[in-house]
Specification:
This protein is an alpha+beta fold. The chain folds into three domains: about 60 residues, OB fold (Dihydrolipoamide Acetyltransferase, E2P) (Beta Barrel); about 70 residues, 5' to 3' exonuclease, C-terminal subdomain (DNA polymerase, domain 1); about 50 residues, Helicase, Ruva Protein, domain 3, CATH 1.10.8. A hairpin with a 2-residue loop joins strand 4 and strand 5. The protein is globular.
Length: about 200
């Protein structure tokens, strides 16, 4: 329902922050509330996820879209709830998490609170193929490196292909061919990409 709020952080606690948006205080559960401690004098944008369960409704806040996307992937894993996902995201450098998932490192994942061997195995099983769909700079060192040299239109087209449901490995395979095309619009890159993927 909500993508982000912009306002002033008025309260910081160990579990949440309160963001004042035009006189309305929104309580946002965050992985690292103290990240916003110095932001009480300037307007900030916090991406949000609304969780509705039985008799409970809560808002979760994220520093950027990539962190929110990783949270959404984590809570879709059987056995991972919002609190566990926040605990996993508390470290702002998520490269260790990504490397653990990619490398089947169950031991690393069981270091997080509430994550046993079974749940760690489920995280790896569910997210190993999906984790590459994100593009956070400190999550994916190599992905960001290629993005800096690509045209924004091409990057938008590649993201659109993944949003359509094509796996990141499939998109990566055709990305090289798309880069060889003369610079064009996102729509044209998307059309060419779909043609290559459906051959």
């Amino acid at each position: 329902m909500f993508e982000y709020f912009e306002g002033f952080v008025t309260i910081v606690t160990p579990a949440f922050v309160v963001l004042d948006v035009h006189g309305v205080g929104y309580k946002l559960m965050t992985a690292n509330p103290y990240r916003y401690q110095e932001d009480d004098q300037k307007k900030v944008r916090i991406f949000v996820y609304q969780a509705v369960r039985d008799n409970d409704m809560a808002l979760y806040g994220f520093y950027d879209q990539e962190e929110k996307a990783l949270f959404e992937k984590l809570i879709n894993v059987s056995g991972i709830g919002p609190k566990s996902a926040l605990a996993i995201l508390a470290n702002t450098d998520h490269s260790g998490l990504v490397d653990a998932i990619a490398g089947d490192d169950v031991a690393y994942l069981t270091k997080f609170p509430g994550i046993g061997k079974k749940t760690a195995g489920q995280i790896i099983l569910d997210l190993k193929d999906k984790i590459g769909q994100l593009s956070q700079p400190d999550l994916f060192h190599e992905t960001k490196a290629t993005q800096t040299t690509d045209q924004p239109a091409l990057q938008d087209a590649l993201a659109a292909l993944e949003a359509l449901g094509y796996r990141s490995k499939e998109v990566e395979k055709i990305a090289k061919k798309l880069r060889e095309l003369p610079t064009t619009t996102t729509d044209e890159y998307l059309r060419h990409g779909l043609t290559l993927l459906t051959k």
